[in-house]
């Protein structure tokens, strides 16, 4: 679930049989030095939380660097497992029922074997529309819970990633000529994919079906490149975090486009780096539209308080973190022509004045770093790994090399091998993930004792908490939605399917803590 409406049932063009068979493009390229290619992709999911929700549909299309399709498109459903209840609102948006994933989908392990062998090819640039903040996170947690490295897919073997959303925003801000730009129902500028497609008469038959969104993203990419090729090619090069770091750490103001900036200025400002992030490859940057005098004398605690305030009613705080590896849309100040400066209401004299004030406040950067440490303290890994939470614990630490080798053993194991597979992981998270991996992907590999454990695990997950349980909230939400006025026939059908699915996976046993056999 990423965009907003529509109800379609996608077909699975690549099933389990094809998941291990080489596609023609990969077959032709095997063992050769590969030229870069784009791979446009999009997901439909069971909710918006990548730690807890699941991918239900994956769609993608490879193109060459001229944006011409290469090979067949991928359109794959992924089975929901019986410990997962989807967000009803998500299903109402994309129209994919859990039953459809079970009938036509691959399990996650099968899907990943296809993905890692046929999609994550050397030189691939993974690209989407808002993928950095949404789709890519779902991909990481999918890889994590299935014993794959969660990061290699977007850097190893000359792979990389790119996001068209900020490319679109910066094009609208700096080089809008030749493109029709949409507005939302509130009159504000909007860069939603379906609106861009509509006003520019691009094909986008079923918004919020992943395959349709992939084709629309490709069409938008062609539009941006055809109308503004210099900016398109420049931002493509700037997907390299080293180039980003070099630009923003020159000590000079630069153009920065981000969803955190106001829509009235097309999400674009002039910023300057005032400090390095203490814990990750990122910079702390200041919005030079804003006079810094009100902030220069504040304590770290006061700055942290302002930083933590969010929402429409909160005062605007002109400081944010720019992560080098999240493909930010940044450009040198000299790309700002007079027309763009006027349209974006950028006053060069005011920018210079605010920049000069910041340079005189020598310790302001240090106080902001301390404010960041107060407002965003380092997360501490859980002392005890809980099997109910281990899916969410990707960011609790990196895996050592010995465990990485054992992860490859898990991935290579078939059902028979999994029956008696025992691996002594140093990382307790992997120990807790292994029985979940078996139960979700290969339930026939479970012993009778493991089946009993799995049923108790599901009972605890779905029914734990009584009237506040996941199941209680799920069925309550279905009832609330069913009472809405003007509900459509299609929506009522989806609600009925969701109710049937929820009833079908409710555990027979009551709640209770379960210990995995042999643990």
Short overview:
Helix content is 42%, strand content 11%. It has 519 residues and is α+β, with helices and mostly antiparallel strands.
Secondary structure elements and pairings:
Blueprint: H1 24-29, E1 37-45, E2 55-63, E3 74-77, H2 88-94, H3 98-104, H4 108-119, E4 124-128, H5 131-145, E5 160-163, H6 164-174, H7 193-199, H8 210-227, H9 229-237, H10 241-248, E6 254-257, E7 268-276, E8 282-287, H11 300-308, E9 319-323, E10 329-332, H12 338-343, H13 348-360, H14 364-375, H15 401-412, H16 415-419, H17 428-441, H18 448-463, H19 470-482, H20 489-505
Helix pairs in contact: 6-8, 7-8, 8-9, 11-14, 19-20
Give an overview of the whole structure.
- This protein is α+β, with helices and mostly antiparallel strands.
- It is built from 20 helices and 10 strands.
- It has helices spanning 24-29, 88-94, 98-104, 108-119, 131-145, 164-174, 193-199, 210-227, 229-237, 241-248, 300-308, 338-343, 348-360, 364-375, 401-412, 415-419, 428-441, 448-463, 470-482, 489-505; strands at residues 37-45, 55-63, 74-77, 124-128, 160-163, 254-257, 268-276, 282-287, 319-323, 329-332.
- The strands form 2 sheets. Strands 3-2-1-4-5 form a 5-stranded mixed β-sheet. Strands 9-8-7-6-10 form a 5-stranded antiparallel β-sheet, sandwiched between helices.
- Helix 6 (164-174) runs parallel beside helix 8.
- The longest helix has 18 residues, at 210-227.
- Mean pLDDT is 91; it is low at 3-24.
